[in-house]
Amino acid sequence: MKSDSQKTSAITVLIADDHAVLRAGLKLLISTQSDMQVVGEAENGLQALERVQMLQPDILLLDLAMPGVGGLEILRQLVRTHAGVSVLVLTMHEEENYLRQALEAGAAGYVPKSAADTELLSAIRAVAKGDMYIHPSQTKSLLGRMLPESVASTPSTVGEAALSDREQEVVKLVALGHTNQQVADQLHLSVKTVETYRARAMQKLGLRSRAALVRYAIEAGMIRG
């Protein structure tokens, strides 16, 4: 059983899914972790919005196919009204277009239900730290659809801040879910150099998290369907 101090520091999670059996299973899985706490459940879209308002969780674990208010609309509303709540999508939809729509709407992570037993806890921890989490199989799919044109032809300005070619390459790969080590291996750079390019790019763009970086990459046309 968790102590009071563990509960205070735990990542708080609200589960929104219309299947009671799945909610129970997810709650059981998450509750076994000393650094996580399920603070509530919702069985439809309207209830999810109401309970986010009431409970203010760190993470909303959200199914896209919610009755009433749909998952994408929930995402859009929360980005406007509860920016401090990170949304981790857990869905049966593994097609790339669903992933893209969720990221564009503001999701901080995307995990197929088929991978929940092995990936969900890691995804929750990553999103709680402000990182983006995309399941590896979907990262590969996105990588295969990167723009074929040279990096230099990609729109790369926000205000007056322009990214260098190498900064754009790093941003693109990081936005696709690669770790600094994976980016370093692919670009034949040191991890420290990748970290420098990443930090410099985020500073120029005024971004503070990987989730924001992914949204920028999509809006700038660095990743397309």
Outline the secondary-structure elements:
Elements: H1 4-9, E1 11-16, H2 20-31, E2 36-42, H3 45-55, E3 59-62, H4 71-81, E4 86-91, H5 96-105, E5 109-112, H6 116-128, E6 133-134, H7 136-143, E7 157-158, E8 161-162, H8 165-175, H9 180-187, H10 191-205, H11 210-219
Parallel strand pairs: 1-2, 1-3, 3-4, 4-5, 5-6
Antiparallel strand pairs: 7-8
Write a concise synopsis of the structure shown:
The chain has 11 helices and 8 strands.
Structure explained in plain terms:
The chain is of the alpha/beta class. It folds into 2 domains: 4-136, Response regulator (Rossmann fold), CATH 3.40.50.2300; 145-219, Arc Repressor Mutant, subunit A. It is built from 11 helices and 8 strands. Helix 3 runs parallel beside helix 4 and helix 9 (180-187) crosses helix 10 (191-205). The chain is globular, with a radius of gyration of 18 Å. The model is unreliable at 1-7 and 146-160 (pLDDT under 50).
